[in-house]
Design brief:
The complex is a heterodimer of chains A (357) and B (360). With 357 residues, chain A is of the alpha/beta class. Chain A has two domains: 2-129, Response regulator (Rossmann fold), CATH 3.40.50.2300; 131-251 and 284-342, 3-Layer(aba) Sandwich (Rossmann fold). Helix content of chain A is 41%, strand content 19%. Chain A has eleven helices and 14 strands. In chain A, the strands form three sheets. Chain A has a six-stranded parallel sheet, with helices on both faces. In chain A, helix 2 packs across helix 9 (256-267) and helix 3 runs parallel beside helix 4. The relative contact order of chain A is 0.13. Chain B has a domain at 66-298. Helices cover 70% and strands 3% of the residues of chain B. Chain B has a two-stranded antiparallel sheet with strand order 1-2. In chain B, helix 2 packs across helix 12 and helix 4 packs parallel to helix 6 (148-168). The longest helix of chain B has 27 residues, at 58-84. The chains are: A alpha/beta (357), B mainly alpha (360). The A-B interface holds A 3, 6-7, 9-10, 13, 29, 35, 63-67, 69-73, 75-77, 79-81, 83-84, 94-95, 98, 102, 118, 157-160, 188, 342-345, 356-357 and B 56-57, 59-60, 64, 67, 164-165, 168-169, 172, 177-180, 184, 186, 197-200, 268, 272-275, 277-280, 282, 314, 317-318, 320-322, 324, 326-328.
Chain lengths: 357, 360
């Protein structure tokens, strides 16, 4: 009897939650994996949230929860937002994939947008950015800038998105400078200033003079600044506080236009489940200002690469390319299809070390 | 001048009242903090302490309280046995991870077979995994007299590496398009640990936690082993005269806490979490140490402390999402609660005396 009472309570509350929504302004929720002050990944998603507020003013109400662990806690955070009457919820990290799908099942009248995953439902869209396009541009700069020919790469988790970035950066660094070597350090975190800083120190001790990162804090920038003579790139956010040295450029995730469009779609009732994967062309990926430390000709080359990617004239994964074991991957002139890129779990030829598993 | 005099016996009255005093002090100091951040302090405190239990959506939160408190209580009960005997297992987090890996591994090995025996086997494997992981510091201590605090703590980091390796290798979902993480056990009925009654949050892990509270109570009060544990904690030398074999006690205490932590991991991975993933562990093993001490190493105390801590987690999350309080403010608030709980303990053990300055 107790159970049925609880369930009845649940149904009533669900009804209330959805009824309240219809009358009121559109409520938009965001779940962040790091603190909004990380100045990287979560910071940029929060900038997107602010853009939504800016665009729709008092027609929307936005809420967010930061530093939500990926796993069981995320499911609660999502449920609680849906209960509080959110109409659309953006879940901004890969690890929220299963929780998003589970909660979406229970709240068919709420729509969800999951970043960087691959599971969709009638009320779950996925979206991601082609960060590897940006990696191609800064990879070129890195190849030109290194004097020791040693480039370090602080990688988070061995998932396709990160592996794609390493491959893209390596391919273009090698094109710019055939002697480059990459050292990849896996830190198994998206945001941990201490671990990221330690990784940067270890890399610099190995004689590395250019560091790329696929983690969200500015700790590697700070370490590089102290070491001197080491170049870095902002990740996810511009990290302009470290310009012009050590940060010489950056890859910026610009979620604002996407968030504004999707919230608009909810407001006018045209929202549909889609899979979005945008790059430099529509402005979801931007290259941060290149500092004067980079020679002018290199800056021009980098801009040219960025422009040719934006115009669709050039694809960062264009053959001939072999896999690390020497097996053929792409023939001369052939470009990688999105399916292969989405599930990429191998290094290209020339990279040393192996993808952890 | 105020002086502190040690009481000959800890005051029973104060020992009972101090937790309430601490909660009230936390509300005051926390309220001040929230007011300083420009939020309504009364609303914030209500969101944290009242709404999860009695608010509009309490039907959902009450279940979540059990989900959150279950593993904390289960682990803390195990730890309290050792702590009472002066055996310090700080590595429950690692035992929790290894238990989850072993249990989930057994379940996944059967995939996609169906059978009633699969889940019980996973439970055994989970307990065994945690037990074996705890045996490393136990044997190193009994054989080579190493420090179990250091060994068990450092093994947490080894377990985390093992977890990452499992998520990326052996246990990775073959249909997961190269992404890390195992199959979701929630979608594999024979290996899942669902809510026993929908919406209540009650799963086997919570049942196990309640059972552990009862068993620990009986063990400590009615059983020879419980007596030996208490005696060793109070006076190791006297314990030896009473026939306690210290090495055996170390093995038993570490083994029991490891097995319970392993069980907690198994119930979590097959239930609320659903899958082995790189960041599956979220600190239950460490938080349980706080729960154990907060509950004064007493089974009933631990039960209440586990629920209280779960409440601050759940309510804290709700305050973040509903009132846009920063995550760090909530952490500071939880820190205050612990700080005041420990600070007012002074009242139980000491008494304040106003004393006149003695003339020179």
């Amino acid at each position: 009897m107790h159970v049925t009472k609880l369930l009845a309570g649940a149904t009533v509350a669900l009804g209330l939650a959805t009824a309240a929504v219809a009358a009121d302004k559109t409520k938009v929720g965001f779940i962040y994996v790091g603190p909004i002050g990380d100045l990287g990944w979560s910071y940029e998603h929060n900038e997107g949230r602010l853009a939504v507020e800016e665009a729709y003013g008092d027609k929307v109400e936005t809420v967010y929860q930061e530093s939500v662990p990926e796993g069981a806690d995320a499911e609660r955070a999502l449920t609680q937002m849906a209960l509080q009457g959110a109409d659309i919820i953006f879940t901004t990290s890969f690890g929220y994939m299963d929780p998003t799908i589970n909660v979406a099942e229970k709240f068919p009248n709420v729509v969800f947008e999951h970043a960087t995953g691959y599971k969709r439902a009638d009320n779950v869209s996925t979206y991601s950015a082609r960060f590897y396009e940006g990696r191609a541009v800064i990879g070129h700069i890195a190849g030109k800038m290194t004097k020791s020919n040693k480039i370090g790469y602080i990688a988070s988790f061995p998932i396709p998105e990160v592996i794609r970035g390493i491959n893209s950066a390596y391919i273009h660094a090698r094109k710019a400078n055939p002697d480059v070597e990459f050292s990849v350090v896996w830190v198994y975190t998206w945001f941990d200033p201490a671990k990221e800083g330690d990784a940067a120190k270890a890399l610099i001790d190995q004689g590395i003079d250019v560091i790329m990162q696929h983690t969200d804090s500015t700790a590697p920038q700070a370490v590089a600044k102290d070491a001197g003579g080491v170049y870095t790139f902002g990740q996810a956010s511009d990290m302009a506080a470290y310009a012009p040295m050590p940060r010489i450029s950056s890859i910026i995730d610009n979620w604002a236009p996407y968030y504004v469009t999707r919230v608009g779609a909810v407001m006018d009732g045209t929202w549909q489940s889609v899979d979005t994967w945008d790059g430099i062309a529509p402005g979801m990926v931007k290259i941060g200002e290149m500092s004067d430390v980079i020679p002018e000709d290199v800056r021009a080359e980098a801009m040219a690469i960025s422009d040719s990617i934006a115009s669709g004239e050039y694809h960062p994964f264009t053959g001939p390319l072999n896999k690390q074991d020497g097996g053929a991957w792409l023939a001369e002139g052939e470009t990688a299809d999105d399916g292969t890129l989405a599930g990429m779990n191998f290094y290209v030829e020339g990279l040393t070390g192996s993808v952890p598993n | 001048m105020i002086r502190l005099d040690k009481r000959p016996q800890p005051s029973r009255l104060w020992a009972a009242v101090t937790p309430l005093v601490a909660v009230v002090l936390t509300m005051l100091a926390g309220g001040a903090l929230f007011a300083f951040l420009g939020k309504n302090p009364v609303e914030a405190i209500r969101t944290i302490f009242w709404d999860p239990v009695f608010g509009e959506f309490a039907w959902y939160y009450r279940g979540q309280l059990l989900v959150k408190a279950g593993p904390l209580i289960l682990i803390a009960i195990g730890l309290s046995l050792g702590f009472r005997a002066g055996i310090w297992n700080i590595g429950a987090e690692g035992q929790y991870i290894v238990g989850a890996i072993c249990g989930a591994g057994v379940g996944l090995a059967f995939y996609p077979a169906e059978g009633w025996y699969i889940f019980p086997l996973m439970v055994i494997a989970g307990a065994l995994g945690g037990f074996v992981w705890a045996m490393i510091p136990a044997i190193l201590k009994t054989r080579f007299n190493t420090n179990e605090i250091l060994v068990s703590l450092l093994l947490v980091y080894v377990a985390e590496q093992l977890l990452a390796s499992m998520s990326l290798g052996l246990l990775r979902n073959p249909e997961g398009a190269g992404f890390p993480g195992s199959r979701n056990l929630k979608q594999y009925e024979a290996a899942s640990n669902p809510e026993l009654f929908a919406g209540t949050g009650m799963h086997w892990g919570v049942v196990a936690a309640f059972l552990a509270v009862i068993l620990a109570y009986v063990l400590l009060n009615r059983h020879m082993l419980g007596f030996q544990i208490r005696l060793t904690g109070q006076s190791p030398r006297a314990a030896r005269f009473a026939g306690v074999r210290p090495n055996l006690l170390i093995v038993v205490c570490l083994g029991a806490s490891g097995a319970l932590a392993g069980l907690a991991g198994l119930f979590e991975v097959s239930g609320p979490a659903g899958q082995i993933s790189i960041d599956f562990n979220s600190g239950y093993g460490f938080t349980a140490i706080i729960v154990a001490f907060l509950g004064r190493l007493h089974p009933v105390g631990i039960l209440l402390a586990g629920l209280l801590l779960a409440l601050t987690f759940i309510g804290g999350e709700a305050a973040q999402a509903n009132m846009q309080l920063p995550a760090s403010a909530i952490q500071a608030f939880q820190g205050m609660l612990l700080f005041f709980l420990l600070a007012v303990d002074v009242l139980a053990n000491y008494r304040f005396r106003l004393k006149k300055r003695e003339a020179a």
